[in-house]
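User: Hi! I'm working on a homework problem where we have to compare a predicted structure to a textbook description. Could you give me the structure for the chain below?
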Amino acid sequence: MNQEEYSKYFKILELTPDASLSEVRKAYLHLKELYSKESIVTLPVEHEISEELNEEILRQIEDAYLNLLSLYKEEDITTERDIKKIISDVIIFNGPALREVRERLSIDLRDVALVTKIQIQHLENIELEKYDSLPVDVYVRGYIASYAKYLSLDPKKVADDYMNEYSEWKKAQKKKSGDSRLPHIAVKRFFAKLGILGGMLLGLPFLGVLLAGLPVTRYLEFPPETRYVTHASFSWIAFIICGLFILAVVFPLLLKGILSGRQTKTGSAISSPFPWWGWLGILTGSIAWTLAWTRFPWFERFQPHTFTPLWLSLILVINALT
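Assistant: Happy to help. Predicted structure tokens:
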């Protein structure tokens, strides 16, 4: 092929004969994009160029590119057919896939930055998938689409693939950040609840004593006794009313525990059976409650201390139910 024919091909690509291989590739991709149907540049004159003429121009661009590549005697000449083969091998367009296509086309990243007006640092972060260094999502999608269009790839497909992986990474980072904070948050909440509960258990009784104008020292005795409290005489009416009230509150809980155990045995539910120590709490609570409300002469010396077994029994039952 003589020099005059090569000059013609350089002219088709709007280059001078001293253009480098990188400039040839850049001009080829630029003109293909310019005369494509999706090009914004040619949209205003779309009806002035017939479809046949547009296809002829694209054919000449492709022909000029192939012939000029042979001039540079490249061992690995990448044509549009090769690009399609590369694309067919790509399942998901991520950073490494974009870099592979670019390198197969022998395109320098600086040329991409020059044409697309995207900072080279952003393009490097896109290829290396340095997600934490990328700007906000809307800019990233725009950069990916422009980069894909420059490489003659489907902008929407490439942008969707890349942004899907980018979104998954952001979700993983958010979850990881949340998980790392969970123990710290749980500890803070535990101590906050402990402080509130301790303040109520210790503060409210003392507040009542102070408001009543009584001395505090007698209520600090250990073990606590009820000798400072004047009890009313025993009343069967009061006993029955309190008993019925307590039974109305406790019965649904007992019924739930019994049904839970039966359902587990028959396999009709996955609920855990009511544990043996829960029944022990019910038994000890019933005994302690009976002794606390009666006045047996032989139990008189233990009467002031019936609160502790009642409280422990309640803890066992509640834990068994939950």
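For your comparison, note the following. The chain has three domains: 3-71, 80-170, 236-321. Residues 155-212 form the longest helix (58 residues). Good luck with the assignment!
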